[in-house]
């Protein structure tokens, strides 16, 4: 049984049902202001770089700034002011250093024109008003094509920043990728008529992102050992417990190390199911299993969990609705009501778990299949390439990671019943139980999905007209993934209807510029394929 599949709760998605993943208008305006500040930091930093100045501090903070924009949306007013103030101060420092060096080197300095005015007296309302005004001005100046291709560029930049933060979890840096973020942001400082320039930069950045993913894959295997196919328990046991949500396996690993002599059980949540399949996690007996039915159901899962909860990297949940006092995070910026942990010190989290009531009695639920065995994958890939070359397989359809909504469940349930037997399905999310479907549950772990696909397409040309990719998760990384596949020569890519998560106009640009189709109905899509 696959994660989130076949349970009553799978039709409930809080992002849609309650708007729990929506962004407040004031946060949206602040994000606009931050992007303006960060792209100016990028401009002056790159100028300093031309002088041979070390800009590591600027690049690292810019990456963190962009990652924080999308990973946390539940700010207090004080946090919002602090974030803007911090980056505006960095902008002034970088700009002044650039002007200073120009004078020392007797070079003419160039200053960016900006209508953004922030002083120590500027309050939050003033900053928000400027963000709204600048947002409207930007959209009046630029053509529709420029507006939306620029938004796509920002999606790709954000994806790179997320992956750079993840790579840093393994004590590794990729300075070239960090500098590419500055160069991408600097494009936004150019004149409005920049469509070709932006498209070329997008192509360059999706390649950078792919190399980042490969580095993360190697780092995960180095830290956590090889991956195996495993049946992960969904059952609970009586006793004190901690729930770890998000996708930061390093946080989970560190917590387990600190808990190895304590009688506290640990359960994973959201995209951390994959941790159970890595060999080095098996040494911890108190890693009991995976909790919850649906990755979007943070409110339901958190509210029913009787212990402490750790929100790790990219825990996108808006926790406004959740109980306070037992939510913790190691992230630089914590949502309101969430307790900040310092330098991997989990003592407060552990104390909270010990004081919580815990599970009074266990509950038995079916296990979840996750991961894969290398030998089985090798055998499948070899047989697939042979059958495809001989013409025994007409189409190869890859179904990627997904949100697992009720609507998607219904779509794929019908899709699987209608697919011809001579089509080979490769699913990373849905288990069809059909003989022509090779299903690998990797729990939305994009790094491992890339690893598997790289092996499968070792002997199969990805440029074939008979290969189709379904991208069904509407998150910040999906756009980068689709464009990267296009740069590799993939002919057929289909994406879910991502409204309201992705602006419909951006979806239209993806269709017109990159030839990416949108899923409609199983009947029509099979006919189209």
From TrEMBL:
GO terms for biological process: response to hydrogen peroxide. Keywords: Iron, Iron-sulfur, Metal-binding. GO terms for molecular function: hydroxylamine reductase activity; iron-sulfur cluster binding; metal ion binding; peroxidase activity. This is Hydroxylamine reductase. The keyword rRNA processing does not apply. Transmembrane segments: none annotated. It comes from Candidatus Scatousia excrementipullorum. The lineage of its organism: Bacteria, Candidatus Scatousia. InterPro entries: HCP/CODH, Prismane-like_a/b-sand, Prismane-like_sf, Prismane_a-bundle. It comes from the Bacteria.
